[in-house]
Design goal:
37% of the residues lie in helices and 12% in strands. The protein is built from nine helices and seven strands; from the N terminus they run βββαβαβαααβααβαα. The longest helix has 19 residues.
């Protein structure tokens, strides 16, 4: 894998790997059904968090249905012989790797990268400074959530990347002020606010100067939002996550306050 691409071949995948795929490279695409992230389970199977027809960006408005109508998908009258028709399914599901990729390219999400490599990556949502857990822990979380669910989909706070990162690390951002633990969500917000929110923009009026300032703010915003360096995270056992979903957040925040 290189600086610009985390491309990987199928024959070197290992159970517990966090994989992803997209068709429109370098575009923010959590709303696109062709942008997917999940956990490779072995035997050509992938467990991932998805959303059903009409909820592609999780707003619950007519905009979801409009985006869905413009997005390509496998025709329901020609379902996969292995998976069947999954076009209407939502939540945590298991798919064959062909259905998961949907014709897109295969990439491996990187963990425990250095700050320098993280900043050098031009796109967010491809790596993290967080350390991964052993594969058996990753597969246990993915299997448990396949049976019990991962809550409702939300574009910033609970999307397919969040699911995969939780399976790999057991970490959750536990604050109501969070914009989500997703690297893509954080990088998207960082990119849109880099120039507008930075007082450094007043130091230069040239396009190249503004671009340099904007890219610097974008990189810093991505770094401080990464789940591997944030302080508002807690390691939550998957059984507790599911059984105590109503009270888990307040308990975790209280625990973090005691630690600090």
């Amino acid at each position: 894998m290189g600086l610009l691409s985390n491309s990987i071949k199928r024959d070197v995948l290992r159970p517990g790997d966090h994989i992803y795929s997209w068709k429109n490279a370098y575009l923010y695409a959590h709303h696109d059904p062709q942008m997917k992230l999940g956990i490779y389970f072995g035997d050509e199977k992938v467990i991932h968090f998805t959303r059903g027809s009409g909820q592609e960006i999780g707003t619950g408005t007519v905009l979801d249905r409009l985006i869905f109508s413009l997005s390509p998908s496998r025709p329901s009258d020609n379902p996969c012989p292995k998976c069947g028709d999954q076009s209407r399914l939502d939540g945590v599901i298991s798919s064959c790797i062909d259905c998961f990729l949907s014709g897109g390219y295969l990439y491996l999400f990187e963990y425990d990268v250095s700050p320098a490599l993280f900043i050098a990556k031009p796109r967010g949502g491809t790596c993290t400074l967080a350390k991964p857990d052993p594969p058996e822990d990753v597969l246990h979380r993915a299997s448990f959530l396949l049976l019990n669910g991962f809550g409702g989909y939300h574009i910033f706070k609970n999307n397919c990347e969040d699911f995969a990162i939780y399976c790999k690390t057991g970490l959750l951002v536990m604050t109501s002020l969070s914009v989500g633990r997703s690297g893509q969500a954080a990088s998207f917000l960082a990119a849109t606010s880099a120039i507008v929110s930075s007082p450094l923009r007043f130091l230069t009026t040239s396009f190249s100067g503004l671009a340099a300032v904007g890219y610097g703010m974008y990189c810093v915003s991505r770094l401080v939002s990464d789940i591997g360096v944030r302080r508002d995270v807690s390691k939550i056992p998957v059984e507790r996550l599911v059984s105590s979903s109503g009270s888990i957040e307040s308990e975790a925040v209280a625990d973090l306050a005691k630690e600090n």
